[in-house]
Specification:
This protein is 44% helix and 0% strand. With 66 residues, it is mostly helical.
Length: 66
């Protein structure tokens, strides 16, 4: 898997995931389990939804060979 989630994107996904889980606990709803998805994508640095659109928020590192 090629990483396609940048640093700011990871932080936003982490916060969003924690908020969704906290709201699920607060309202005693199973919908809070959806917070696992942004937490997973933040921890792996890879988002499958970005693939079909060719989106990447990672900064491109210059190739050392050039």
């Amino acid at each position: 898997m090629k990483k396609n989630v940048g640093s700011l994107d990871k932080v936003l996904r982490l916060v969003l995931g924690l908020v969704i889980i906290a709201l699920g606990i607060l309202y005693q709803s199973w919908w809070g389990l959806l917070g696992i998805i942004p937490l997973f994508t933040a921890s792996t640095g890879w988002c499958p939804v970005y693939l079909p659109f060719g989106i990447s928020t990672c900064k491109i590192k210059p190739d050392a060979k050039k």
